[in-house]
Amino acid sequence: xxxxxxxxxxxAAMSGSAVCASVDLxxxxxxxxxxMDDAVKTLDASIGSKDAQAVATDARFIxxxxxxxxxxxxxxxxxxxxxxLAAQGHGLAEEIAAASSQNDFDAAFTAYRSLVKTxxxxxxAYKPPSL
Length: 131
Known about the structure:
Layout: H1 2-22, H2 30-48, H3 52-76, H4 80-101, H5 105-126
C-alpha cells in the first residue's frame, strides 16, 4: 500500500509539473498571490472570532485577486482548469463575505473550507515548485 501511495504522489507531482511547464507564468503577479495566501490564512481566525469586518476585508481582497487570476489564465488560453478554479474560488469568497455579513459564521466557515480546497487544487496544478 505504501508503494502505491508513493507512486500516486509522484504521478500527481509529474502531472502538475507538466501543467506548469505548458503555461508561462513569468508575468504572474506573485505579490498578489502571496497577499491572497495571507488573507486566506487570516480568514480562519477572523471567522473563528466572528469578526465580520475583518472577514469582509479579507474576502473582498480574495474576490478581487481571484477575478484578476481568472482573467490572467483566460488570456493564457491553455489553462481552463485554472480559470474554472479561480471563478469557483471568487464565488466562495463572496459566499464567505455574504454569510459573515449575516452573522452566519458556520456557513462562512463551510465556504472557507471549500475555498482552501479550491486554492490547493489550483496550486497543486499550476504553482511552480520555486514559489
